[in-house]
Amino acid sequence: MKWLTGIIGVLLIAGALWDVFETIVLPRRVTRRFRLTRLFFRLTWRPWRAVAHRVEKKHKRRELFLSVYGPLAFIALLIVWAATVVFGFALVHWGIGSRIGSINHRATIFSDLYFSGTTFFTLGLGDIAPLGAAARTITVLEASLGFGMLALVIGYLPVLYQAFSRREVNISMLDARAGTPPTASELLRRHQEAQSMASLDQWLRDWEMWAADLMESHLSYPVLCFFRSQHDNQSWLAALSMVLDVCGLVMVGIDGLSKWQAQLTFKMARHALVDIAQTFNTSPLQHNDARLTDTDLANLRAYLSSQGVQLSNETGDAQTLRDLRALYEPYAEVLSSYLMMPLPGWMPKARASDNWQTSAWEVTVPAQEQTFRKCMTKPGSLARPVRAAALPKDD
Questions:
Q1: Of 115, 203, 217, 389, which residue is least crowded by CB atoms under 10 Å?
Q2: Does some domain include residue 368?
Q3: Based on the domain organization, do 102 and 191 belong to the same domain?
Q4: What pTM, to 2 d.p., does this model score?
């Protein structure tokens, strides 16, 4: 029956190597039902999320606990791949009769496992050596695969973190443009206040590119979806949802704004959202108006109108916005529940402060916003920088 053990070992090696190829090398989404990587994330994320639900929501401990999962899961996945290959080669050695020479003991399955591990990690201790052509061939093959997997991982890490960095740059810029957490109404209000509504078209074009890059990187490397943003009140899902909200409002109709770029950005952002949801095999929820009820929509119109932003209010506009929301909100909500990333509202929260207004020494500084607005409205004041708050001196 040893030959059957050897066949099982070959299947384990082939399965692990193919999973490494699909996860790291193959630049496309894999829709196969069974994958070692997908099984790993399902078995580890569910208990991790269950523990996170027990952590106090108001404290930052929950977000800190969730932020650890992405990097830690990636390291654990590498260990799983390596352990599977090592165990598979140990079974192959056992299947051909454990043809290895030990200085002090006769060969056993544990000797095969030890020899396979030292070979895979190219330790070259020399206390056990292969005997015969078959064992030597298997040893050389395993050492080559171990070296190759190490090279792949070294090349994989920079690509992964470069994609994460590109994603976070635009998310960080939303803080000053759309508030924290970002909302569509706050973005429109700030652009109107700065008399910069014309620049919104270029802003939407930039986010179309961001959504395309997000889809390409997060479909190729799904582990990036678990990587949280630098601040607790920001996330890639919240940013993507807010962009879709803005596109929906512009497509319904805002005086002075063209709908063409909003349509392009909406299509790209919705494409990214749907494809990422399919990666996790999360079925969209049934759409409802809980996120923006008719009363909320009326309040949104009144708020935007008071800020000088005129949202179209013709017959059928409310239904058009509802239809547009139905194209993306069910996917955003199911991902929000699965990844534990809250979605932003349509209106800014009361007494909400942007991240740039706070620091480790200052909690909330409303006076900074007032000072900034005075400098923006005072003629010629843009040339004079606002004096930053002094840092605490060392003792």
A1: 389
A2: no
A3: no
A4: 0.82
